[in-house]
Design brief:
Layout lengths: L2 E4 L5 E4 L4 H12 L5 E4 L5 H12 L3 E5 L2 E5 L9 E4 L4 H14 L3 E4 L10 H9 L2 E3 L5 E5 L5 E4 L5 H10 L7 E5 L6 H13 L5 E2 L3 E4 L10 E3 L4 H13 L4 E4 L12 H8 L2 E5 L2 E5 L7 E3 L7 H10 L1 E7 L11 H11 L4 E4 L2 E7 L5 E4 L4 H10 L7 E4 L11 H7 L3 E4 L2
Parallel strand pairs: 2-15, 3-14, 6-7, 10-11, 18-19, 22-23
Antiparallel strand pairs: 1-23, 1-24, 3-5, 4-5, 7-9, 8-9, 11-13, 12-13, 15-17, 16-17, 19-21, 20-21
Helix pairs in contact: 1-2, 1-6, 2-3, 3-5, 5-6, 7-9, 7-11, 9-11
C-alpha cells in the first residue's frame, strides 16, 4: 500500500491502543495457568495475533468476543507436534522457543520477513546446552526438554531472551537462575515481564546480577486481566502534538506504568513541548523545540519518532547507546537516516546512534517504509513539518503493531489518501 500525506496539523483526543508488550506476556501466562481466565484487550496487531496463533497451535483455546478473550490453558502433558508461525514478531519467536523447550514439545517454527536474520543464537545456544534440540535454519525444528535451570546470557543483545526464559521458568522443574553476563539494556521490558508474571502468581527475584525463579511456583490466572495502554505507539501522537497544531490528548496511559517508553513525556518536555498529565491522560501542546542529547539504551523503540522531533527542533540532537537498533525489523539507524534524509533532513549515522541538525522543517518527498512498522508511522509524523506531501511506500507495514494507525491519523485531522 502506498499512501500520500498532505501536511496538516493534527489535534484532538484519542484512546491509546493496548500495550503489545504487556499483551504478549499476559496471553502466555494465561495459557500456562491451571484454570480458564479472561483477558480484556480492545485492539489487535499482527504481532499479538502471531503469539495467540502459536499458543492455540500448542493446544490452548483462545477465543474473542467484543474484545474479551476467553482462554482455556494448554495441556502441559501433550506430546503432539506443533507447527508454529511467528510471522515477523521477534517477541513471539523469542518467547515461544523457551516455552516449547520447557514443555518438551516437538515443534516446527516459522518466521518471515527479517525475523530469520535477527539475533537468536545466544538464546538457542543456552536452550540447547540445557537439553533442547533446535535446528540451525528456518523453519526451526525443535525437540527435547530443558533439564536444568541455570542459564547465562548477555543482557545487551535482546531483553526478549531474558523475558522468554523467565516466562518458561515455572515449567522447568528446577530453581531457575538467569545470570546476566553483560550490563542489562532495555530493563523496563524485563520489569514488565516480572510484573505480569506476578499478576499470574509467579514471583521473580533479582539477585547476584541475575533473575531467580524458585521451583514449585505455578501460574494462577486472575479471573480477568485488562491490558493497559501502549506508550510506544502513543509516542507517535504525542510527537505529532509537539510539532504543531492545537494539542493532542491521549487517554488510557498509565502514569506509573513499567513501560520504559513512557519516558517520551520527559523527552518531549526536554525538547521544549508543553506536556501535562492527569490521572491516565496525557496532553501535549506545541512550543518551540530545541536540540537535545538522548540516551537510547532503555528506549530503542522511541528513536525513529524522536528523530522526527529532532528534525522539528532547532539545533543539534544526538542519539547514543542505540546500536541495537541495527538488529530490529530493519537496521533502524540506517533506515531512519535514509528515509528522513530523503525528506531533506540533515542527519548522519554514528557507530551507536544518530546526529541530527534540526532546522524545524523538511521538504517532503517519497520514501519506503523498509518493512518496518515504526519507520512507516514515523514518516507519517514527519509529514507534519514538511513543505510538500510525503508519499510512503509499503505503508501497510504499520499493521504489524498498529492496524488502525492511518484511520486514527485521519481522526486527528490528518490528510491521508491511498494511492494504491
Amino acid at each position: 500500500m502506498t499512501v500520500r500525506i498532505t501536511p496538516s496539523p493534527l489535534y484532538g483526543r484519542i484512546r491509546a491502543i493496548p500495550s503489545k508488550s504487556v499483551a504478549h506476556r499476559a496471553f502466555i501466562c494465561a495459557v500456562l495457568s491451571g484454570k480458564p481466565s479472561v483477558i480484556v484487550c480492545d485492539g489487535m496487531s499482527r504481532d499479538i495475533e502471531a503469539t495467540i496463533n502459536c499458543l492455540n497451535a500448542l493446544g490452548a483455546k483462545i477465543k474473542s468476543t467484543d474484545n474479551v478473550f476467553e482462554i482455556i490453558p494448554i495441556d502441559k502433558d501433550s506430546n503432539k507436534k506443533a507447527s508454529l508461525d511467528c510471522g515477523e514478531s521477534g517477541s513471539t519467536l523469542r518467547f515461544i522457543l523457551p516455552l516449547v523447550s520447557a514443555l518438551g514439545r516437538n515443534a516446527e517454527i516459522y518466521g518471515y520477513g527479517r525475523l530469520p536474520e535477527r539475533p537468536l543464537t545466544p538464546l538457542t545456544k543456552e536452550l540447547i546446552s540445557h537439553g533442547a534440540y533446535i535446528g540451525s535454519s528456518f523453519p526451526l525444528e525443535c525437540g527435547g526438554r530443558l533439564d536444568s535451570g541455570h542459564f547465562k546470557i548477555a543482557g545487551n543483545i535482546s531483553s526478549q531472551f531474558i523475558s522468554g526464559l523467565l516466562l518458561a521458568a515455572p515449567l522447568i522443574g528446577d530453581d531457575c537462575f538467569i545470570e546476566l553476563t553483560t550490563e542489562l539494556e532495555s530493563k523496563p521490558y524485563i520489569d514488565i515481564t516480572v510484573a505480569v508474571m506476578a499478576s499470574y502468581g509467579v514471583k521473580v527475584e533479582y539477585r547476584d546480577n541475575g533473575y531467580f525463579v524458585k521451583n514449585g511456583q505455578s501460574y494462577t490466572a486472575p479471573s480477568s486481566y485488562e491490558i493497559e495502554g501502549d506508550w510506544s505507539n502513543a509516542a507517535f501522537w504525542l510527537t505529532c502534538a509537539a510539532l504543531g497544531g492545537n494539542g493532542i490528548t491521549l487517554d488510557r496511559l498509565t502514569q506509573n506504568s513499567l513501560q520504559g517508553d513512557r519516558a517520551v513525556c520527559k523527552i518531549l518536555a526536554e525538547f521544549g513541548a508543553i506536556v501535562t498529565t492527569e490521572d491516565n491522560t496525557v496532553t501535549v501542546s506545541p512550543a518551540p523545540l530545541k536540540g537535545i542529547d538522548i540516551n537510547a539504551a532503555n528506549i530503542p523503540d522511541l528513536v525513529p519518532v524522536l528523530a522526527v522531533a529532532a528534525c522539528g527542533a532547532i539545533g543539534q540532537t544526538r542519539f547514543f547507546n542505540a546500536s541495537r537498533l541495527r538488529l530490529k525489523e530493519s537496521d533502524r539507524l540506517l533506515a531512519v537516516s535514509d528515509v528522513l534524509g530523503r525528506l531533506g533532513a540533515d542527519i548522519i549515522q554514528i557507530e551507536d546512534g544518530l546526529i541530527i541538525n534540526g532546522t524545524g522543517v523538511l521538504k517532503g518527498g517519497r520514501a519506503d517504509a523498509m518493512g518496518d512498522h515504526r519507520i512507516a508511522m514515523s514518516l507519517a509524523v514527519a509529514a507534519l513539518i514538511c513543505k510538500d506531501d510525503v508519499i510512503i511506500d509499503n505503508a501497510e507495514t504499520a499493521e504489524k503493531s498498529y492496524p488502525a494507525f492511518f484511520e486514527h491519523y485521519r481522526a486527528l485531522n490528518g490528510r491521508v489518501s491511498i494511492i494504491n
